[in-house]
């Protein structure tokens, strides 16, 4: 008997010895009862000894059969362990996260290294988008959104933190450390058109202002502010890096505007460790960026 044939026969023998039945071994291996009998007979012939006693329509291991069973089971266990050791692990599917583009660019992406280092088991795929979320159409798992629109009541929504806003500008626009809004160009954005109205409702404003300029996206108005082209209203999360680097200042201070950021999901957070992990991390990181009240 060749080594290949012997290994094939040992697979039949191990199943029959473990189950104590040629019929059950045949069912497990998806072969006929006759195929099991032939393979074991070939093995017994090659070894020159009986491995089973066949009596009363049952099969029972002989002493050599029991000895071989123990050796074969140990060998198969070692093979299984070796296969597990060399098998390439299956990479988990990424958690698809939809995030408003400016928050993604200015806040989330610079901090993703921390998330990946602390949670390598949760790969993320960013999907830049704002407003209502088409979870099924865009294959999105969770979405970070500000509650400036009404979302489906069936969604699971977990609050992450409050929104804080402030007028921001390049340091060169200050006069003796003060910002005079009435003498500055106010920068608006089509993606958050009520930003200045919200600031006037919660902050301080002298009621007058100079000319204005509107940009299509929030990050464009912030870039214009960095370039000294005027004053924009910025979320603390969108401007934190620029303030820390000195490119922008917020001389009038940050105020809550009454809105907040929520993590939305079509599935419960307590039923998915990946969603819960991201939620906990977002709360921790966004909490660190908040100004002192």
Integer-rounded radius of gyration: 34 Å
Structural class: alpha/beta
Give the helix tally.
9
Largest sheet: 8 strands, mixed
Please count the beta strands (DSSP E, at least 2 residues each): 10
Oligomeric state of this protein: single chain
Low-confidence stretches: none
Compute the separation of the termini in Å: 83 Å
Q: Quick check: average pLDDT?
A: 88
Helix content: 40-55%
Q: State which percent range the strand residues make up.
A: 15-25%
What does the overall shape look like?
rod-shaped
Give me the side-by-side strand order of the main sheet.
Answer: 4-3-5-10-6-9-7-8
Q: Encode the helix/strand succession as letters.
A: HHHEEHEHEEEEHEHEHEH
How would you describe this structure to a colleague?
This protein is α/β, with parallel strands linked by helices and 293 residues long. It is 43% helix and 20% strand. The chain has nine helices and ten strands. It has helices at residues 3-19, 22-29, 33-47, 63-86, 101-118, 195-202, 218-226, 236-245, 273-289, and strands spanning 52-55, 58-61, 95-99, 124-128, 142-146, 156-168, 186-189, 212-215, 231-235, 255-265. The strands form two sheets. An eight-stranded mixed sheet has the order 4-3-5-10-6-9-7-8. It has a two-stranded antiparallel ribbon with strand order 1-2. Helix 6 (195-202) links the parallel strand 7 (186-189) and strand 8 (212-215). Helix 1 (3-19) crosses helix 4 (63-86) and helix 5 (101-118) packs across helix 8. The longest helix is centred in the first third of the chain and has 24 residues, at 63-86. The radius of gyration is 34 Å and the shape is rod-shaped. The termini are far apart.
